[in-house]
Specification:
mainly alpha; 8 helices; 0% strand
Length: 254
């Protein structure tokens, strides 16, 4: 019984179907591209309007005065932007990122949209962190002035007011870093330890165990400070009178 001879393979390419698929892909992409460009244009206009509105709102609310009281305005005197301008710029670029996320969303789920969403979420926290730092600096400066005025001309006034200022600024920076989720493994325990120390001191003091010893120490410190203040600056010593060897009373008789 003879076997049938193998038939040659028939290779055929459907050029018509390929052209149809390519044209369909282009026809689906062009409307999405146009929608992407329209979203970018409208979003850019909206971002500029919101940035101007936020700038006017912050300046009318007195954010510039708060920045001056905190010392931030003095630190930014050589910068082209003040504290309000920096906040507005962050807000402006954050809105643009939101617009980009909406624009890329036209093309469907993609990694770029997910990355932009993470950045936008962090920018919102960064704005809040900047506000926390400015408010903490303003409060610290006001408390420092109050403490310095209360202590008057005491020799330890500058040291105490500086320590109070540094403590408030440190707490504000730690809270801002925690808000921005920067080094949370370090800032979180530090803030917890600082608050626990303050609470412990208050509890022990209110409980009575620390009142009398600290009262005695404060009385000794205040007494020493009052004596130092009442003593005043040391009087300059009079220079020694030169000895006139030619005077008769200074001649050593032989």
């Amino acid at each position: 019984m003879s076997r049938p001879l193998p038939q040659p393979l028939a290779l055929s390419v459907d050029f018509g179907q390929g052209f149809t698929d390519a044209w369909s892909a282009v026809a689906r992409f062009v409307p999405k591209l146009l929608a992407f460009l329209v979203i970018l244009l409208i979003g850019w206009l909206v971002a500029k309007l919101l940035a101007r509105f936020a700038d006017r709102l912050l300046r009318k609310a007195g954010f510039d005065k708060l920045a001056e009281r905190s010392g931030v305005a003095h630190a930014l005197k050589d910068s082209p932007y003040d504290a309000t301008g920096i906040i507005v710029k962050i807000l402006y670029y954050g809105i643009l990122l939101v617009v980009l996320q909406l624009g890329f969303g036209v093309f469907g789920p993609n990694p770029v949209s997910a990355m932009i969403a993470d950045v936008v979420g962090w920018l919102a926290k960064a704005i809040v962190a900047c506000v926390i730092v400015v408010v903490a600096l303003a409060i610290a400066r006001a408390v420092r002035d109050i403490v310095a005025s209360a202590l008057g001309e005491a020799p330890y006034a500058k040291v105490v007011s500086t320590v109070v200022w540094a403590s408030i600024v440190t707490l504000g920076v730690i809270a801002a870093l925690g808000q921005a989720e920067i080094a949370t493994t370090v800032t979180g325990p530090l803030l917890t330890a600082a608050l626990a120390a303050i609470a412990g001191i208050l509890i022990v003091g209110v409980g009575g165990g620390l009142i009398h010893p600290m009262r005695d120490r404060w009385e000794r410190w205040l007494s020493s400070a009052e004596r130092a203040t009442a003593r005043g600056p040391a009087r300059p010593t009079r220079p020694a009178r030169p000895v006139d060897l030619e005077a008769p009373e200074n001649i050593d008789p032989m």
